[in-house]
Each structure stands twice: as C-alpha cells, then as structure tokens.
Specification:
The structure holds 2 protein chains of 2 kinds. By secondary structure, chain A is mainly β. Chain A has 6 helices and 31 strands. The chains are: A mainly beta, B mainly alpha.
C-alpha cells in the first residue's frame, strides 16, 4: 500500500522552526459524526483559502459503509518524524489519513493523493484485529512515530482497563501489537505524545470506555475516580518510568502538548475540572534531573450562574465550569491556546516562560450560559472545543462538539455544530475578523490541515 | 599493477558512498549535536558509528575470504551472485525496516550497535563481495591469519573512507548548511541501492560462468 518517493516528502520538515515556514494551508480535513448513529460519519474537506470564493465551505466528503462509528480524532500515516535519524524513512508519502471510530473501534484509512478534496477509503482495520493483536479497544489519539503509527486506546475490548497504546505498521497498516512491555501501575489512558529528543513518552488519563460511554458519571466524578495522573515512559524500551499524580481532585487529565523543539523537555497538559471549585487548569511538566515534575501554571475559575440556565447535571453547583477540553501549542513553543468548552471561551497565553504564562487574548463563542454569537451568526451553543493551529501560528481552527453522550449532558438542547477559524496576531491577541464561520448538519470534531499542523508532526532536530 | 589496485580503490569509493548516505550515520551525528548544542557531540558520534559499520563489513569480508579459501572460485561467485540478487530483491520489496529499541539517547555502544544493524540490514558488507573477489587469494599458500589480516585491511580502508566523508558532511551540515538540506537532497538511495545489489549479483554471476 505504501509508496516510495525519490526525494523526501516535501511536507516533512526536520525542525519545528523550518515547519513554521511551510506554505499556508488551503485545505482542511474535519471529521463529523451522527450522534443518532443513523447515518454514516464523514471525513469532510474544507476550503480554507481566504482568497477563494468558497472560503470556509465544504468541498468534499468521504463516507464510510457503517453507522455509529463516532469519528473523533484522526492522524496521518507518516509525518516529519520520518526524518529522525535512528529510524529514517523520508521517502514514504504523507497521503493516508487514519480515522478511528471511538465507539466502533474500527480504523478507516483514506487516501488523499488521487484527489485531495475527495479522500478515498482504501482500507479498514476492524475492531477484532485491534482486540486480537493488541488487546485494546476504542482507539483515540494517533501520532505518526519515527518507526510506526502509534494509537492510544481507552480500554480493553470488554470496556474496562487497561487502556494503552498499540502500533500500526506504516507500510502495511497491519496492527503490530501492544506497545507497552511493562505498564507499571498505569491503567487509565487517553492522550499520549513524546519528547523524541529525550526518548520519553507521556500518557494521560480520562476513563475506561465503561466509565465514559454512557456519559459522565457524577458519582464516579465526585469520588475522584476519573483519571488524575500522568505517566512517563521510556519510549524505545517501552517501559513505564514514573507516575505523576496531580491529586485526586484534578479530574480528567487530557490533552498533552510537549514542546515541539526536541531539545526542550517540558510541555503542557489540561485538566478538565477540579472537584474543589469546578475550575479548570493547565499544568507544566518538566524534566528536573532524571525525574519529571509538574506545576500548575494556569487556573481558569468557574463562573457563577442562575440554576435555571444550567443543565440538570450542574444546577446544584450554581456555576458553569470552564471545562478545558483541548489545548494546542504553536510550533515555536511560544503560544498556548486553550478551549473552555463550558464557558464558551477561547484563550491565548504567551508561554515563553512555561512557568509564568501571560494571558494575551480571549474571544467568546457559545457557552452553556453565555451562548455568545459570532459576527456571522446568531447565538451559538457548544463552545470552542477541538483546536488546531496552522504551522505559521496565525490561524486557529475550532469546532464545538465534545463527545456525543457528554454533549447531551452539558448542552441538553442538542449541539448545533459549527466550525470557525480565528486570527491569531503574531504579537499576541485573537480576533474573529477575517475568519470563516460555517455550520454543519453532523457534529464536528477534530480538524487537521493539509500538509501538517501544530498537533500532527514531531521533530528530531531543533 | 592497475589490476591489483582497483579493488582497493573500489572499496574506498564505496566507503565514501556509505559516508554520504544520511541513513548510515552522519545524520545521527548531526541530530545528537543539535540536541546537545555542541560540535563535540557531532564528532564524538562518528567513532561508534564507524566501529559498528566496520564490524558489519568485517563479518562479510571474513566470510568471503574463508569461502574463497575452501571453495572453488566458480562456486564462490555463484554463491555470492545468489546472495546479492536475493538480498537486492528483498530490499526492493521491503524497503523500510527499522532496527527497534533505539532512540535519540543512545550511548557509545548503542550507537555502534545501531550502526552495525543498519549497515547489515542495508547489505553494506554484501556490496563489497564482488570487489573482494577481485583481491588475490592468499589462502592457498598462507595461513588463516593472513586471510583475516587482508580482510581487516579491506574493511578498514573502506571504513576510513566512510569516516572521512561522514565527518566532513556532518560538520558542514551542523555548522553551515543546516538540516534543511535533507528536504532538498536526500535522494532515495535505498531504491538505487537495491538495484545496484541486483546488478552486481548479475555481474558476479556473469564473470563466474
């Protein structure tokens, strides 16, 4: 299935510094799903060229032959890490998108080369293959690694722990097997990424499929049963090295954004909710000698609200939690973007000093109570959730759905899906001007940009 | 005189060819230099890479010399041709294979081990087989020790040439050119490499008949 080029794929960049100078994207890929599980989920192509008459509109849609997959995150078959010296394969082409169904555990593989606007389904990895070869289920995050495609999975086929990582061969798309040789105390899984320059992988924790698929379970949440730890791993040796507990009250430790520069050993992780005061927080992890440590660097407080404006789940708290569900870091490791899905706020921080972030921008869109409008829309629901950044760092792409069963608990009226692009000023600051705003019939989730973006690639050179 | 020299010249040229291939080591040296932000890290990576390469080459060279010592020349060439063509076809069909368990933080032995595996997997030593068959066979009238000496001399000349080219390229890329050159100039040597392996197998076979 894989093809070989005579020169390196020109979307590969040795360093984040060089990648930031890549040509500006003109197409974006976005997954959508049907919350009613009646119609097939889709992989959409959006025109994101501001000079085009169709700016922000759908120009293609690939469908799958099943319903109820729940498309969520997705990723490329190969990326800039192909240039890493210890497992180089620079002549493999970035042309396949791997799209997991978070509920069905299938992984669909689309070829974008024949027509970038109309991806073509070329292969499907069935749940059975993942279960038999790796013992995992509910594939979530995909990262193209130096020596294969790494995928995190929320749990075991029976819906319980452990969740973990499995590897897919980047030539044949065969599931190679479970990644962990020694998982230590790790049981819960969610996101993962790495510091390639330090041979270190990091994983985070959400909950097992049985803890999340029917919606957030308030009893488990108040008992602090959702994930609250980070795990540090030896990447080449595939062994657990260190567990970092953020504290039981820090519930749901989700998106991991390590510094893109491989010579730096720090990164940022978002925590959805604190049981103490419903705040969300951002923590910086960093290497101190031979062990990793964490420090809370940003706290976003809950906003008081009239219980009449709140969904049943939140009425008793008389407040809207910010619910930081996604974050993203610019390729120069300077700007951190934070989505507060509950309050409907999108924030920008200058993290030049990763221990002293400075808030530099904020815009409001949607929100449980606020329902803030875009200049091109009426009041919105849902809130900024998945955030993707262009490689030059000038544009952020946002969508507003979280996860079907959780959407209903926080936005019981039903999410009306939208996607938008936001202008990020090079000197700091955000604005809704000159972006697009589009609505969609199905729920929108992750966006990836043609050729790569701030969460698709990793690098081995500074 | 020229007949006696050409195998040695070919060994050195092939060394230079291995030295210039980013996948064989110089890129690893540059990456380590960038990670540590020091030229010393670039230079100190070269020796273990060369040692691993040498070990891989010596293995093949000794095998060839020993086979020559005990097997009639016709069968040696036939065997070499078969191995070369088979390996070349295998590489064509399965271009990418990564030695597992390595990362950016390899030490001296790790780097040498990586280089040994990379060189062996690429068939770097095998490529030398047709050339080695052009070297005079001492075995008929001398000891195994002399075979080994010639083998090590052949491998060392090859690796010296590789080390020189690798050293120059890695320092120039680290100090001046930058890794951006990878995007422009990293031609797919693997593809050509497989074809060369097959071609040299065919030539070896031809000269055997």
């Amino acid at each position: 299935m894989a093809t070989t080029l005579l020169k390196p794929d020109q979307t590969f960049y040795p360093s984040p510094r060089l990648a930031a100078k890549a040509p500006v994207e003109t197409l974006a890929y976005m997954v959508t799903f049907d919350p009613n599980r009646k119609k097939p989920d889709g992989l959409l192509t959006l025109d994101v060229d501001p000079k085009s008459a169709g700016f922000g509109t759908q120009v293609g849609r690939a469908e799958v032959p099943n319903v109820g997959d729940e498309f969520h995150h997705f990723g490329w078959n190969v990326c800039s890490s192909a240039l890493c010296p210890y497992a180089a394969h620079p002549h493999l082409e970035r042309r396949y998108l791997l799209v997991p169904g978070l509920r069905s555990s299938r992984i669909y593989i689309f070829d974008i080369k024949p027509d970038p606007k109309q991806p073509k389904l070329v292969h499907t990895i069935e749940a059975k293959e993942i279960a038999e070869r790796a013992g995992y289920s509910r594939p979530h995050t995909i990262h193209c690694g130096p020596d294969g495609i790494y995928v995190s999975a929320l749990g075991a086929p029976d819906g319980n722990a452990p969740g973990g990582i499995f590897v897919i061969d980047h030539d044949t798309f065969a599931v190679k097997g479970r990644w962990e040789l020694d998982r230590g105390p790790q049981q819960l899984a969610y996101d993962f990424w790495w510091h390639l320059g330090y041979d270190t992988a990091i994983t985070s924790e959400w909950g097992t499929p049985n803890m999340v698929e029917a919606g957030v379970n308030p009893e488990l949440l108040l008992a602090g049963q959702y994930g609250h730890k980070l795990h540090i791993w030896d990447l080449p040796k595939r062994r657990h090295r260190q567990e970092i507990d953020l504290g039981k009250e820090q519930q749901m430790v989700l998106e991991l954004r390590p510094a893109h520069d491989p010579s730096k050993a720090h990164g940022f992780v978002g925590v959805v909710v604190s049981l103490k005061d419903l705040s969300s927080s951002i923590w910086t992890w960093y290497l101190d000698g031979s062990t990793y440590k964490v420090e809370k660097v940003i706290e976003i407080p809950a906003e008081p609200a009239d219980p009449n404006d709140l969904p049943p789940l939140l009425k008793g708290f008389k407040a809207v939690p910010p619910l930081v569900t996604d974050i993203n870091l610019s390729l120069d490791d300077r700007w951190l973007y934070v989505s507060a899905w509950g309050t409907g706020e999108f924030l920008q921080f200058d993290v030049s000093d990763p221990f002293k972030p400075k808030k530099t921008g904020s815009v409001h869109l949607g929100g449980i109570v606020r329902k803030a409008a875009h200049p091109k829309s009426g009041p919105l629901n849902g809130g900024p959730q998945m955030v993707e950044l262009s490689r030059d760092g000038n544009r952020a792409y946002l969508t507003n759905s979280l996860y079907a069963s959780w959407d209903e608990q926080f936005y019981p009226e039903g999410i009306k899906s939208w996607a938008t692009s936001i202008h990020a000023r090079p000197e700091g600051g955000l604005s809704l001007d000159d972006g697009f705003f589009s609505t969609f019939e199905q729920r929108t989730h992750q966006v990836h940009l043609q050729g790569g973006d701030a969460s698709s690639d990793s690098y081995c050179y500074s | 005189m020229i007949n006696a020299l050409w195998p040695w010249a070919a060994l050195a040229l092939l060394g230079a060819y291995h030295g210039i291939n980013p996948g064989m080591g110089w890129l690893f040296a540059v990456a380590r230099g960038m990670q540590e932000k020091s030229r010393r890290a670039v230079l100190s990576s070269l020796l273990p890479i060369a040692i691993g390469h040498e070990a891989s080459i010596v293995m093949v060279v000794v095998a060839v010399s020993l086979t020559e010592a005990f097997v009639p020349p016709f069968f040696v060439r036939l065997l070499a041709a078969l191995v070369l063509v088979t390996f070349g076809l295998y590489k064509l069909l399965r271009l990418r294979s990564h030695p597992s368990g390595f990362g950016m933080r390899v030490g001296f032995t790790g780097l040498a081990g990586w280089s040994f595996l990379m060189s062996s997997a690429h068939g770097a030593g095998l490529m030398l087989a047709p050339v080695l068959l052009g070297l005079p066979v001492y075995a008929a009238y001398h000891s195994l020790r002399e075979i080994s000496l010639q083998a090590v001399a052949a491998a060392s000349l090859h690796v010296a040439a590789m080390l020189f080219v690798m050293g120059v390229v890695s320092v120039v890329v680290y100090e001046r050119v930058g890794v951006g050159i990878l995007r422009r100039s990293w031609f797919n040597l693997d593809l050509g490499w497989s074809l060369v392996l097959i071609a040299s197998g065919a030539v070896t076979l031809f000269t055997a008949v």
